[in-house]
Amino acid sequence: QVQLVESGGGLVQAGGSLRLSCAASGTIFGINDMGWYRQAPGKQRDFVARITRGYSTNYADSVKGRFTISRDNAKNTVYLQMNSLKPEDTAVYYCNLWSPTSLSYDWGQGTQVTVSS
């Protein structure tokens, strides 16, 4: 099965930047859509950004203009560049990958992002 590992989270001051990475390993058949979600305590897991196999991107309104998603297909890795971070961006960030074998998303374990004011 596919394994997804996020990295790059941490503590940053408001207005600062972080870059998250998510590397996929294991048995991968083709290159599929990958995305980022986030979840704060007591809240739902919300969509943040996604990038298709054709490099088309979509963003949540709350992060548009501040975050940039990209991917390196050769490395099976997706990135999330986060600029102008706000305290409300504080959450655990998860990456996902569409699995054509299970017809569902594979999820990583998440990486904590904390933005202080």
Could you please describe the fold and organization of this structure?
- The mean pLDDT is about 95.
- Helices cover about 0% and strands about 55% of the residues.
- The protein is mainly beta and about 120 residues long.
- The chain is built from no helices and 11 strands.
- It has strands at about 1-5, 10-15, 20-25, 35-40, 45-50, 55-60, 65-70, 75-80, 90-100, 105, 110-115.
Features:
single chain; 117 residues; mainly beta; seven-stranded mixed β-sheet; four-stranded antiparallel β-sheet; 11 strands; globular
Secondary structure layout:
Layout: E1 2-7, E2 10-13, E3 18-26, E4 34-39, E5 46-51, E6 57-59, E7 67-72, E8 77-82, E9 91-99, E10 104-107, E11 111-116
Parallel strand pairs: 2-11
Antiparallel strand pairs: 1-3, 3-8, 4-5, 4-9, 5-6, 7-8, 9-10, 9-11
Condensed summary:
By secondary structure, this protein is mostly beta strands.
Q: Cα-atom Rg, whole angstroms?
A: 14 Å
Shape category:
globular
Mean of pLDDT: 93
Question: What is the helix content?
Answer: under 10%
SSE string: EEEEEEEEEEE
Per DSSP, the total helix count is 0
Q: How far is it from the N-terminal to the C-terminal residue, by CA?
A: 40 Å
Low-confidence stretches are: none
The largest sheet, given as strand count, sense and whether it forms a barrel, is:
7 strands, mixed
Which secondary-structure class do the elements indicate? Answer: mainly beta
Beta strands, count: 11
